[in-house]
Amino acid sequence: MFENVAHVLEELGKQDYICDKKIGTVVFLAQQLEKPVLVEGPAGVGKTELAKVVAAATGRRLIRLQCYEGLDEAKALYEWEYSKQLLYTQILKERFSQAMSGAKTLREAAERVAQEDSVFFSDHFIVPRPLLEAITSPDPVLLLIDEVDKADPEFEAFLLEVLSDFQVTVPELGTIEATQRPLVFLTSNNAREMSDALKRRCLHLFIDYPTEADERRILELKVPGAAEGLVSDVVGMMQRLRDLDLKKLPSISETLDWARALLALNARELDEDLVNQTFNVILKYEGDVRKAQGELDKLLQKQAIREGAPVPAPGAPQKPASASKKGALH
């Protein structure tokens, strides 16, 4: 249990998750008010990771429901184990014969079989999916409904019962209420707008791209082997790239991937050739790569003008000039 917002920041810090007071406050209020949290923001900024570290910090088991187009309540809630039901039917065949003996009509025989429905439609034959598992867990858990914006609006409407009353309805069994209220985190990459009804039931949290200072702290924490110069170069370049009109802006997850890739190449600082060779680690579209390379050429030209060096043509091979290249990347 978190005692206050400062305690949240401290415990998440122990899990190597760097966040600000806004995030800490929402997490604390989610615990105190027992309300779900809808976490929105660009892909790769740490929305899913937040749910994971909160689960670890509170000692709760993480139950994850990955959403996708076509997901329905049966796949998210429960599934009947038909093969097990069939096996039990074969084993109890003689018992059924005894129960139906003496029945004079088919209707009477069917009614006698129907009286045994509870034997075959019980929790013995249910395979719980994430939602039912979270509702029926005897211990406190954290339910992560990941990328809820990818699910259909019909499934979003179904979630309202879970998020409002922390209960689910199984037609064959009735309404099942939560034995322990789970902490619930929903994440969204803004693929579509969430309904007002869903938002009303949740605390809202938007996680944006990190500031330069936060990105540096995250990089130093997650990639401890990176040299100080490399950290400065990578963070500076990532901050510049996010100012461009790219189809997919690189996030903190790409920053970490890039730093680890550069570390594998034994790099201690960035230069133009190394950047061009590894742009595909952080940029996922060829058009974005070309825009970024064009921006890098502009930076190098400006640096050359300041230093009085010959200005290369855009896209032309650059002569080795480590100081010039390094300065352009800062």
Observed structural traits:
alpha/beta; 12% strand; 3 domains; disordered C terminus; 5-stranded parallel sheet; two-stranded antiparallel ribbon; Rossmann fold; 330 residues
Care to describe what's here?
With 330 residues, the chain is of the alpha/beta class. It has helices spanning 5-14, 21-33, 47-58, 73-77, 82-91, 93-100, 106-114, 117-120, 130-136, 153-165, 196-200, 212-222, 228-241, 252-264, 272-282, 286-307, 322-328, and strands spanning 37-40, 61-66, 78-80, 126-128, 141-146, 167-170, 174-177, 183-188, 203-206. It folds into 3 domains: 5-73 and 136-206, 3-Layer(aba) Sandwich (Rossmann fold); 78-125, no CATH class; 212-328. 53% of the residues lie in helices and 12% in strands. A 5-stranded parallel β-sheet has the order 2-5-8-1-9, with helices on both faces. A two-stranded antiparallel sheet has the order 3-4. α14 (252-264) packs across α15 (272-282), α15 (272-282) packs antiparallel against α16 and α16 (286-307) packs across α17. The longest helix is centred in the last third of the chain and has 22 residues, at 286-307. The two termini are 43 Å apart. Mean pLDDT is 84; it is low at 318-328.
